[in-house]
Amino acid sequence: MSVFNPEAFLTQQETGALSTKFEPVPDGEYPAMIGADENSVKARTTASGRAILDVTWEINDPDLASRLGKDRITIRQSVFLDLTPQGTLDRAKGKNVQLGRLRDALGQNDPSRPWSPLNLRGAGPAKIRVTSRAGDDDTIYNDVKGVAKMA
């Protein structure tokens, strides 16, 4: 890991241009684990008040990492949450299906065991389905469209 000095960074001189686009992960299914660090599982709310759980997956495919020129390949999955008026997860039929599928793929959807979103940190492996989409500026973005148990 490199040593980063914020003070020196602000005054260092650089020559040459930087990349303006990244090569996306090709659409497909990949083995992955959820990151174990504190930023890998985060909750947030949108400007309109919707609750979201963001999960950062680390794809375990050395050949793909080599092809993309990366040490680590990470992709964020954003899961919209259905909440009760009290702010807890809504367990009614048809609610929080995406979160239920995520938990199930990781063996964490047992109704007899207590569960917290923080249990997701470092969880896996699972198989994630990655897709790509074009943004407003024609930049290609990756999305996690599905999660399943490893076969």
Account of the protein in words:
The protein is of the alpha+beta class and 151 residues long. The protein has a single domain (23-148), classed as OB fold (Dihydrolipoamide Acetyltransferase, E2P), CATH 2.40.50. It has three helices and six strands; from the N terminus they run αβββαβαββ. The protein has helices at 6-11, 62-68, 97-105, and strands at 28-34, 41-45, 51-59, 73-81, 126-134, 140-148. Strands 1, 2, 3, 4, 5 and 6 form a six-stranded antiparallel β-sheet that branches. It is globular, with a radius of gyration of 18 Å. The two termini are 34 Å apart.
Write the layout of secondary structure elements.
Layout: H1 6-11, E1 28-34, E2 41-45, E3 51-59, H2 62-68, E4 73-81, H3 97-105, E5 126-134, E6 140-148
Antiparallel strand pairs: 1-3, 1-5, 2-3, 3-4, 5-6
Q: Provide the CATH topology.
A: OB fold (Dihydrolipoamide Acetyltransferase, E2P)
Count of distinct strands: 6
Query: How much helix, percentage-wise, in residues?
Result: 10-25%
Number of helices: 3
Shape call: globular
Strand content: 25-35%
